[in-house]
Specification:
This protein is an all-alpha fold. The protein is built from seven helices and no strands.
Length: 143
């Protein structure tokens, strides 16, 4: 598994490229060519547009994931907060604030809200806690 794959597989013709990065990518392409067919190589990136086109020819399948829909965002948050009381939340407001965040950012927001509730010796994640956590994720996401 290779995460943040764009750090390794950036386009060789990129203007800010250095020779060492090209050599690393060429070595990785050879590695992929020599990998047995029964092997599973998984790579993830948030910046597919930066990848060298030669990489796309070496993978059998490309899966693209966009940001979650409003309904999916609520499901992610509800699953992550399953151990907490969320009965007072108005999910419509939460959905608006969650818009544009990735699955991972939503999980981080839910965990931050739950942590704050627990530190306040409460088992309730209220609207204010979750909305603040989502706002913070937006701020860090766009910083």
């Amino acid at each position: 598994m290779f995460d943040e794959f764009d750090a390794l597989g950036a386009e060789r013709a990129a203007g800010n490229d250095v020779g060492e990065a090209r050599r690393i990518l060429n070595s990785f392409l050879l590695f992929l060519d020599e990998t047995p067919s029964e092997s599973l190589v998984v790579a993830g990136t948030n910046h597919h547009q930066l990848l060298d086109q030669a990489l796309f020819r070496r993978f059998d399948m490309i899966a693209t994931y966009g940001p979650p829909t409003g309904e999916e965002a609520v499901q992610v948050l509800q699953r992550r907060l399953a151990g907490m009381d969320t009965s007072t939340l108005r999910w419509g407001l939460v959905t608006e604030r969650a818009s544009g965040l990735s699955h991972a950012e939503l999980v981080k927001a839910a965990e931050a809200a739950a942590e704050r509730a627990i530190l306040a010796d409460r088992d309730v994640v209220d609207e204010q806690l979750l909305l603040e956590a989502l706002t913070e994720r937006h701020a860090s996401h766009h910083a």
